[in-house]
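Re-running Biotin carboxyl carrier protein of acetyl-CoA carboxylase to confirm reproducibility after the cluster update. Everything else is unchanged from the original entry.
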Amino acid sequence: MAQILSPLPGTFYRSSSPDKPPFKADGDGVAVGDVIGLIEVMKSFHEVRSDVAGTNIHFAADNEEPVMAGAVLADLD
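Result of re-run:
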């Protein structure tokens, strides 16, 4: 099992806008470099890219949830 951690403190978003589908849904596979979400810090959005590959992603952070740097955003099998 691997984890994807937040690189920054801020607000976690699973999609690029409310009317767009999430970058990844629970159960999806993830490749190295895939964007899994965005972190907003003072009106700047930063892509969260996976540095590991895996299957069956499960998000530990909810959409629009405040997170701290180093917080677990998602688990991968």
